[in-house]
Structure formats: C-alpha cells, structure tokens
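Memo to structure team: turn this sequence into structure tokens by end of day. - J.P.
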Amino acid sequence: MAQFDIPNPANFCGGAYQDWLEVMLTEQCNGRCSWCVEKYGWHPQNHVTWQILLQMILNEPATNIILLGGEPTLFNDLGNLITELSKKQRKVYITTNGSRLNPYFAEECLANLYGINISIHDYNLLHNNIITGINLDNDWLKDTITFFHTKNIQIRFNCNLIRGYIDSETQLLNYIDFATRMGATSVRFAELKFDEAEFVDLAKICNWKWGLNEDPYHCGCHKETIINGMKISFRQMCGAQTPLRPFPANPLQYKKRVLYYDGKIYNGWQLKTNGGEHNTEIEELLKKVKDGSLSIEKAMEIITAKEKEKMDYRDKIEKSSSQGGCIY
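Reply from structure team:
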C-alpha cells in the first residue's frame, strides 16, 4: 500500500478545528459568485423542520456551530434556530453574503449569534456587486455592524483575492482600512479554489511574509497575524484545490461531519456524484433497454459519458471535498 501524504496538523484537513459542526441550512442563494463550488454540491430534495435540525445539532458534541448554505439568511426559521442553540450554550456563527443585513433583520434573527462572517470581496461595494451580484448599502451595512457591537458579536469580513480587484499587498491594506472603518473585528483573505484565470497567489503578492508559503498542504494553509491593528487570517489553497500547486501524493485528509438540511449528517461535504442520491437517469436508460426502445450499445455509450462527467467532477473538486472547514 502506498504511503499516505499527511497534511499539516494545523490545516482543516489535518484535523484542526475539531470542536466545530458545519450546518448547511439551504441550497438557495441569491448571489452569482463565479467560483462557487456548491454548483457541484449535493442538494438533497428533502427538507426537515428547524426543530429537527436543532435536535440533530444538540446531539453532536461540538460547541461551535457554523451555519452555511447556499445563503443561510434565506432560511425561514433562522432566528428560532439561533436563539435555541444559544440557550443551550452553543456558540453560533453564520457566513453570509450580507444581502439581508439591516438593523431590523439583525435584531429579529441574528441577535443571539456569537460571530458573523460577511463575505465582501472588494472595499468598493460597486465592485463587490459585480463580483457577487449582491448590492450592499454602505450606511445600512455600517448600522447593522453597529448593532452587532451592542450584542458583542464578532464581525469578520471574508475577502477572496480576485485578479483585477484585491490582488496586491497595497489592495490588501486598502481593504483592511475599509474593514476598520466599517467596524469589523477581523478579516480573512483567501485564495480562490479551482479558478486559474482569477487566482492570486497570497505568498507572492505579500513577499512570503506572515508565514505564507508555496506548500500549504505541508507548511500550513491557515496563518494569522495583526496588520494595522486588525486581526488578519490568511487562507491558502493547496494542490488539492488549485492546479497551480502540486497535488499531494495519496493525501490522507480528515473528513469533518456536516449536517445537511435533510437532517442527515454526512462525512464531509458531499458532491452531486457522492451524496447518496439514486441515479434516476441511468435507471430510466435501463428501463428503455428492457422495453426495447434503446439498444444496449447506445445505453452504454450514454452511461460512459455520464461516468466521464462524474470523473471530471472528482478531478476538479472531490479531492478537496473532505476538507469540511475549508468552506469558511
């Protein structure tokens, strides 16, 4: 048996952040981020009630609960879920594109959060709208963040580095200044997954400072520092997430438990090809062969093409789907 290639233990896939449970609340999203890997994701047809999700979460030992999607603020019973989890001493976080953030929604649904991650990918909000399709109002956003401060809620801005937008150290510093003025308590800069055209190399643009490196799989993909008084975390992509770095040979990666909105806990983030869904298209092909309306040869040709498509998914994404925390 080939020897496993072990990741840095501080990496998400190396076993760090064990006291976290990721919860996919909804497949719905009102954004249009070009790099979104959830278009390849497993989207169960069944949706359970928030009460069932609550019980499933409470059955898990994790203290830190992060609510994801899709866009989790589109989940109808979000306020009820957060409130009840908070009563049970769970630290609840949410990652959002900010589209529904206003002081009224925040007070009604988000007041019992422990932390919020707001994905804003440029300090020019018009540019962010081009990138995400989400229109954020500067004053509305700032007023909402002011409300979060009254509740001692941690506020992190998530920024993906994108060529032509935030793609240099100067632009990073400009973004940090923007985050400071808006009232964020921390910022996370991340490289893009599976997007060669728009990929920006964090280590290169920052001249390999702050522990940034060209081998995140072995040297660590997550680095933290303080810049101009702001807490900063950097998230680099290893070769399992970008073809611009060597893919680790025979990687051994820790799979985190993820609760989906169908009320089932999966071993890591799932794809369309491995979510457990019956392949109804192939079943239909076999029925046509049985009733004589399709030849076996033609059916095999179609099935082979579908299997190739499945492998294309795996080549591009599934190698990193075990990295449960990497969606943050």
